[in-house]
Amino acid sequence: MKDQYNRKINYMRISITDLCNLRCLYCMPEKGIDHKKKHEDMLSFEEITEIAKVAATLGVDKIRVTGGEPLVKKGIVDFIGNLSKIDGIKDIAVTTNGILLKDYAKDLKKAGLKRVNISIDSLKPEKYAEITRGGNVNKVLDGIQEVIRLGMTPVKLNVVVIGGHNEDEVEDFVKLTMDDDIEVRFIELMPIGEAGNWAKHRFISNEKIKKMIGNLVPLAHHTSSPAKYYKLPGAKGKVGFINPISSHFCGECNRIRMTSDGKLKPCLHSDAEIDILNIVRNDSSRLKEVLEEAMFAKPQQHYLLAEDYQLGKRNMSEIGG
């Protein structure tokens, strides 16, 4: 269906957990979330699947499963399998930190997973451990090679460049696109959750990153993608730039989000939420109505740069990005 600004909404991002096995500096507090929810306050896989079936009748044909870290959730493989059986769903993807990816990739592909996005902000073991507060980058790199081996390409790597931390690795990331079908996507740091208090002085625009790389050939832009893609001469993969701050893409936004505690978010950068948990449990006949309401209610654009913008109440790990 279309929202009030005539944008076609066909993409649903579903967070299945707010738990994670890392503690990235800009995403989650070092000690984890200080308001952990009870199990009964979270959507079950069965409830999520029921909601996804209704969303498909409204034109949603693409689902991305996020977290927290989705691969820490018990039953993830069967859940992906059930999503893949929904009439109308053509594309199922997962965004993961990659720590557990090598162990799950083969089974996830068999279940119907099409693609994987991997969040990785450093290729250096010590720097990666610093940014993630203890993560092992070699496990992530092994996971990347496994999904390439399985043919789940292109593999998309989401990289947040943080001033004073990893801007010296831009060229190293870009080199990964030379020999493999990898899309390295630089995503501007957003003032959400933990990053909200220091994003301004850590922020590096993608325009600056593009200049650091230099020799890039622009590729055709697909309006369904927030990324603008380029290529190094002779490279097998691509380099993408997602600019939510310096050049927002709200006019082309085609997505709606659902949190693991059953809230529909018409916009990532707004605290506006619609409760769907109680609907699916107590009045499921209204699911279509509530989904339509959330889709139609998408704002025209975010207001991250507005002078009176206030930080959201949730950490990124609770929203799913």
Largest sheet features = 12 strands, mixed
Overall spatial form: globular
Given the structure, what is the number of helices? 11
| Mean pLDDT level | 90
Strands of the widest sheet, in order across it, are 7-8-9-6-5-4-3-2-1-10-11-12
Tell me the structural class: alpha/beta
The residue ranges in which pLDDT falls below 50 over 5 or more consecutive positions are none
Q: Assign the CATH architecture of the domain at 11-162 and 249-319.
A: Alpha-Beta Barrel
The CATH homologous superfamily of the domain at 11-162 and 249-319? Aldolase class I
What proportion of the residues form beta strands (DSSP E)?
15-25%
Number of strands: 12
Distance between the termini: 22 Å
- What's the CATH class label of the domain at 11-162 and 249-319? Alpha Beta
Structural Rg: 19 Å
Could you tell me the CATH topology label of the domain at 11-162 and 249-319.
TIM Barrel
Task: Itemize the secondary structure elements and their pairings.
Layout: E1 11-15, H1 45-57, E2 62-66, H2 76-84, E3 91-96, H3 101-111, E4 115-119, H4 125-132, H5 137-149, E5 155-160, H6 170-175, E6 182-187, H7 199-202, H8 206-213, E7 217-218, E8 228-231, E9 238-242, E10 255-258, E11 263-265, E12 274-275, H9 277-282, H10 287-296, H11 316-319
Parallel strand pairs: 1-2, 1-10, 2-3, 3-4, 4-5, 5-6, 6-9
Antiparallel strand pairs: 7-8, 8-9, 10-11, 11-12
Helix pairs in contact: 2-3, 3-5
